[in-house]
Amino acid sequence: MRGFVMAMWKWMALMALAACNAPSVHFAGIDPERMSVGPSTFEMRRNGKLVEVIRVNSEWAPRLSQQLGRRAEIAVEETYGCPVREIRGDQAMMIAILKCGKPDDLAKIGQGTKALSSLTTSMTANELVW
Fold this sequence. Notes:
There is one protein chain. This protein is an alpha+beta fold. The chain has 5 helices and 5 strands; from the N terminus they run αβββαββααα. Strands 1-2-3-5-4 form a 5-stranded antiparallel sheet. The longest helix is centred in the first third of the chain and has 17 residues, at 2-18. It is elongated, with a radius of gyration of 20 Å. It starts with a helix and ends with a helix.
């Protein structure tokens, strides 16, 4: 009986560790993108305008309100090319809400001013208003 109890404890510990960076139901089945910003490493999964951000490295007592939230925001913006409108969560998991326009326009804008100038010359004045 004692061996069975020990085996169950080991199994439960293994399952707890395996779920540390598992996605929530809304992001299940989406392959993660991994990026490091400063000392923080994040796995991100995007579903529409929502991005689940999971910090996967160990840091001593990071605070979301200080630098960790900004590092997560930078990782999301660099990975997906859209500005972050809002980010909520805690030190381990956050949800970022993206503020994206048309995907093709953002990709061109992200390539620099040369792409931006060619984009604006091919658009009418009404299309330039966001």
